[in-house]
Amino acid sequence: MADEAENIQEEKKEAEILPVMPDLGGTSSNKGELSIKTWILVIIVLISILPYYFLYQAGFSNGYADGLKLKVNNKTVLSTTYSEPIYVLDNVEVNLRDHKNPKYLTATINLALKKNTDMAKIAPYETELRDTLIILLSKYKASDLDSIRAYSKLKRLIKDAMNGILRSNIRVTDVYLSKFLIKLLEPTQKIKI
To answer: Are the C-beta atoms of residues 161 and 132 closer than 8 Å to each other?
Structure first.
């Protein structure tokens, strides 16, 4: 008899819990409310997932910065999503003035521009900008570029040189060096015939 009383009490406890969880075999007297809550939850989840899908389609699947890239005259530049618009001059390669151990510099130079409208205006100047960079950088030895002070000075010189070419049409406000590698130039091997 005591066992039956305990079983009845356990069944009452389960009956109290199960109506709250109808998927586990219980029943609910308010099925309409539960389904409305379920639909609201499904809609909220879908609304929160959709923006990620569209961002993925826009290019964020390749990484955050890749999704922010845009093209101006078939030239990839960074978007104005950052604090200032950035124009990228990538793969600038220059022979340095090291004669005993010839070295070369590979750099990606990012020009921060004053206005968003300057992004499209700067593209026609790219050849002149690259030419000036090559002339400026080829004056250096590797040992001249081995300190933070040297980088800071070089960035100021690049900024001044770029603004000299662009004159008052476009203003470069800062220069960022996102790639700056100095490598030893391998001598060509002699081929025996």
So the answer is: yes
Q: Which among 89, 51, 73 is positioned nearest to 176, based on CA atoms?
A: 89
Print the domain residue range for 33. 2-57
pLDDT for residue 190 is more than 50: yes
pLDDT at residue number 36 = 83
Q: How many residues does the chain have?
A: 193
Residue 177 and residue 134 in one domain = yes
What does each C-alpha distance from 152 to 98, 147, 157, 176 come to in angstroms?
A: 21, 9, 9, 10
Structure-token pair, residue 94: 């220059």
Q: Are residues 17 and 111 in the same domain?
A: no
Q: Quick one: pLDDT band at residue 80, thresholds 50, 70, 90?
A: very low
Q: Where do the H-state alpha helices sit in the chain?
A: 2-17, 31-57, 64-67, 118-122, 126-137, 148-166
pLDDT top residue among 31 and 147: 147
Which long-range contacts (C-beta less than 8 Å, at least 24 apart) are formed by 161-166?
A: 161/132, 161/133, 161/136, 162/111, 162/129, 162/132, 164/132, 165/125, 165/128, 165/129, 165/132, 166/122, 166/125
* pLDDT at res. 75: 56
